[in-house]
Specification:
- By secondary structure, this protein is mostly helical.
- The chain has a single domain, classed as Four Helix Bundle (Hemerythrin (Met), subunit A).
- About 80% of the residues lie in helices and about 0% in strands.
- It has helices spanning about 5-40, 45-85, 90-125, 130-135, 145-170.
- Helix 1 packs parallel to helix 3 and helix 3 runs antiparallel to helix 5.
Length: about 180
């Protein structure tokens, strides 16, 4: 199969990102396991609260695999299928914008998940056991900042994904 040059560039970008996120996901899993051992179940941190404090950090590992590894691999697979079906290629501009938006949005989202997870775990390790106070203190106690940064990460990631979906959808109408 003769792939267009812009497909090859997109494949390389997405595969490099997926491979690097695979390493990050494995490291996040190891860090979660090690950090979880540091938050002990005590009277101040009973079993249910222990789980609640670790949950934000526990979810990072799976999210990195999903949005950092599996989705980029699915992107390349979708594009490969369009070529296998003999459809018109997605435009180079769409693929460039997809990578330029999806990758930074994903990195920001993952960084915020790690930051929040460690904010809670380190807070408990240093004696703060009121989950609501710890949660509210995240990102300087600014709900506006938190909503803005989380919203930005998710919006940029979704916009990149939307551009790819629209591009692939357009190619499906060509036959």
């Amino acid at each position: 199969m003769n792939l267009p040059e812009h497909y090859k560039r997109f494949y390389r970008t997405q595969l490099r990102f997926a491979l690097s996120m695979m390493v990050v996901a494995l490291l996040a899993g190891i860090c979660f396991q090690e950090s979880g051992r540091k938050v002990l179940i005590t009277e101040a941190v009973p079993v249910g609260a222990h789980l609640e404090y670790l949950l934000s950090l526990a979810l990072v590992h799976g999210h990195i695999f999903l949005i950092g590894v599996l989705l980029p691999l699915a992107f390349t697979w979708m594009l490969h299928l369009t070529q296998s079906l003999g459809l018109e290629p997605v435009s180079p501009r769409s693929l460039t914008w997809t990578s330029a938006l999806y990758i930074p949005g994903t990195i920001l989202t993952i960084a915020l998940m790690l930051l929040k997870g460690y904010h809670l775990v380190l807070g408990v390790r240093h004696g703060a056991t009121d989950f609501n106070k710890l949660n509210e203190a995240f990102l300087g106690s600014s709900h506006l900042l938190r909503a803005g940064v989380y919203g930005l990460g998710h919006f940029v990631m979704a916009l990149g994904l939307g551009i790819l979906v629209a591009g692939v959808w357009r190619t499906l109408r060509t036959r």
